[in-house]
Amino acid sequence: MPNTSQLCSVDELSDRLNDPTLRVLDGSWYLPSAQRNTIAEYQQQHIPGAQFFDIDMVSDTQSELPHMLPSADIFSTHVGNLGISNRHEVVVYDTAGLFSAARVWWMFKVFGHQRVRVLNGGMPAWIAHGGAISAAQVQLQAEVYESSEPAGLVVNHADLLANCHTADYTVLDARSAARFAGRAPEPRAGLPSGHIPGSKSLPFDQLLLDGQLRSAAELGALFESLQDQPEPKFITSCGSGVTAAIISLALFEAGYGLQRLYDGAWAEWASLPESPIEVA
């Protein structure tokens, strides 16, 4: 049977680093409160041959919400300029271990790129295993890239409002349990904490062990315990669409395929007066 895992090991990436059919991306991103300059960090050290993928730049820059999914045309332009075509395999990592790389993986998946995986454990695992580090500038020749339309994989505010009544989908929230319950403040000023009615708390760090995604068997058992419908249908959410993608990656790895994601996430939900909010 073919390997359908969405994860790439450090050993495999090391062996294939000079493969011309492979493209490696540093998709590191942190909350503004972390005061990290990910572009500068990339320039100082990255996996040899890797290019930087900026989720704030490859986004719908007309939206007031953070790093919303861009149009297919905008995504195609940015990806093509990175020297990536539809024939290339893509491996994404981040410097946290497994954090924002999942968002980049999800973006490629949503736009129809099947051959994309996440480096399990990211840069920390790479360094721990003695992987080479480079500060060399990487500039590849631009390629033509053609994206597919998302085809219902991205959920909007109206969809979530409707689901509050129909409960057709199990909504999984990747934020901390304290933010979900309304006991801790949101990192974005002016937003109340709490959660979407009927949603379930699944802090993203529960899906990880030592910075790597838990086994498919462990993840499958966890999602089965959270499933409300006879047919598994999930919507993932979080603060701004980044850690929701970690749940999406875990669902895919557990055999549930690419489930739907609420891209506006809590940043949108909590900012709109018509959104019901539950606490505790």
TrEMBL record:
- Keywords, in A-Z order: Pyruvate, Repeat, Transferase
Domain Rhodanese span(s) in chain numbering? 18-135, 165-278
Please state what the protein is called. Thiosulfate/3-mercaptopyruvate sulfurtransferase
Lineage: superkingdom: Bacteria
Extract the GO molecular function terms from the UniProt entry.
thiosulfate-cyanide sulfurtransferase activity
Record-linked Gene3D superfamilies: Rhodanese-like domain (3.40.250.10)
Q: What Pfam families does the entry give?
A: Rhodanese
Q: Specify whether Repeat is a keyword of the entry.
A: yes
**Is Transferase among this UniProt entry's keywords?**
yes
Q: Which CDD domains match?
A: TST_Repeat_1, TST_Repeat_2
